[in-house]
Amino acid sequence: MEPFAKNGCRTRIWPILIVWAAFAAGLLVQTISPQLKVKNNKFVIPAALMSGTSEIRPDELIVQERTMQAISGILTLGSALGLAFHYRQVLFVRNMLKGEQK
Amino acid sequence: MKDHKWFHRFGIAAIATMVALLTAAVLVHATQVITTPNAAFSSFNLEAGGNSAPITPVLGQSVLVMGAVTTLEDLGEGEVVLSRGPADEQGLNWTGLEAPTAFNGGSGITAGFNSTVGTHIVYLDFSHKVDVEIHSATQIMVHNGTAAAATGNVTLIW
């Protein structure tokens, strides 16, 4: 039997696929960000950049890092909450059953 | 049948834990990055006569540039507040304190407005050979004027 044969199944599958994709995108954005380290409450510009010849723009680097971290955080948190909501019956089945027994 | 259910629940719990841990890690890092002030720290290791990469300070506000040379027997530190001039009057404007040249001596004042390449801004070492200089009308660089390698660091706060 084909799992996606009915329209009802399709409409249920797509939202969760999008949520999983958003979660993966959040992690991906995290990995492709400039990866500036924070030490002693300061951003650390890699020494390799400093000894190179190309221009360093600390303000732009930091803005880029902040933007990507914000996007990553929103995508990851949003999708994690979405996943928790979608799988609530599977995740919290024991507690729900306990509640019903009472 | 019972084992199958147990594995199923274990798998779900493992995936849920992994998602929760990844989310927490991302959020902790994002929060740290977003709440860190506008300050950039960079170490340098310059060969004799060498220059660092050009650094462009942010436009339209004052930037505190402080640096230190950590090479043994040439330790020192200097600081300067600088700002980039507007587009029709390009150059760097600065005022600050040079690294002291005596063990119990005071620091000299450095100040200026210039766009000429190689203009001295502030010394960072005891022997006054390692300094921050103008690289272009909008950029600075660290120059090592000693006959040996120099190590140190520069911090920009804006």
Helix and strand content put the structural class of chain B at alpha+beta
The topology string of helices and strands of chain A comes to HEEHHHH
What is the number of E strands of chain B? 9
Provide a count of the helices of chain A.
Answer: 5
Largest interface: A-B, 42 and 37 residues
Strand content of chain A is 5-15%
Q: Count of DSSP helices of chain B?
A: 1
The succession of helices and strands of chain B, N to C, reads HEEEEEEEEE
* SS-derived structural category of chain A: mainly alpha
Mean pLDDT of chain B: 92
Principal-axes geometry of chain A comes out as: elongated
Total number of beta strands of chain A: 2
- Spans where pLDDT lies below 50 across 5 or more residues of chain B: none
Q: How far is it from the N-terminal to the C-terminal residue of chain A, by CA?
A: 39 Å
Low-confidence stretches of chain A: 1-5
Q: Which geometry of chain B do the CA atoms define?
A: elongated
Intertermini distance of chain B: 64 Å
Strand arrangement, largest sheet of chain B?
A: 1-9-2-3-4-5
What would you note in describing this structure?
The complex is a heterodimer of chains A (102) and B (158). Chain A is mainly alpha-helical and 102 residues long. In chain A, 72% of the residues lie in helices and 7% in strands. In chain A, helix 1 runs antiparallel to helix 3. Chain A has a two-stranded antiparallel sheet. The longest helix of chain A has 29 residues. Chain B has one helix and nine strands, in the order αβββββββββ. Classes of the chains: A mainly alpha (102), B alpha+beta (158). At the A-B interface, helix 1, strand 2, helix 2 and helix 3 of A face helix 1, strand 1 and strand 9 of B.
